[in-house]
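Q: Hi! First time doing this. I have a protein sequence and I read that you can turn it into a structure. Is that right? Here it is:
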Amino acid sequence: MAEINRLEDAYNWNITRLADAFNLDRGTVRRRLREAGVVPAGLRNGANVYALKDAGPALFGEMFGGSGQDTDELPPQDRKAWYQSENERVKLELELRNLVHAEEAHREMSRLAKAVASGLDSLADMLERDAGLPPEAIEMVEQVTDNLREQMYQSVMDDGDDDATA
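A: Yes, that's right. Below is the predicted 3D structure, encoded as structure tokens:
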């Protein structure tokens, strides 16, 4: 193994070492470095060495984080493959329940809002009947719950306006 005099040299590897470390073919490593425009960090024993910080993204950039390329600019076959993979990903996410249809989300939010509104409607009656609160307190409870209902309504309507403008 070569002697390393500087710490920076420990992170400068030749194509053979990169290929061995990442279990890739040397030709694949060479091609990916060339396509990414990675310039050698220097020479060691007559062979070009590449900084790992430059070689890593060139070798694995598409796997982790993508190439940053717009899908509309892909060649037709690649674009088709990308959209098919995205459709399969969405189907899997739906099946795993990590993703739900918008209609289902709206329906569940509606159920939640109805349950909260129903509870707010009956709160004053329960407090009057079960807790024996005086009429002044019941009026205050009704005012507060009416304000809460109005705030909920305004919040829903404001979100609806934001969705319509988006």
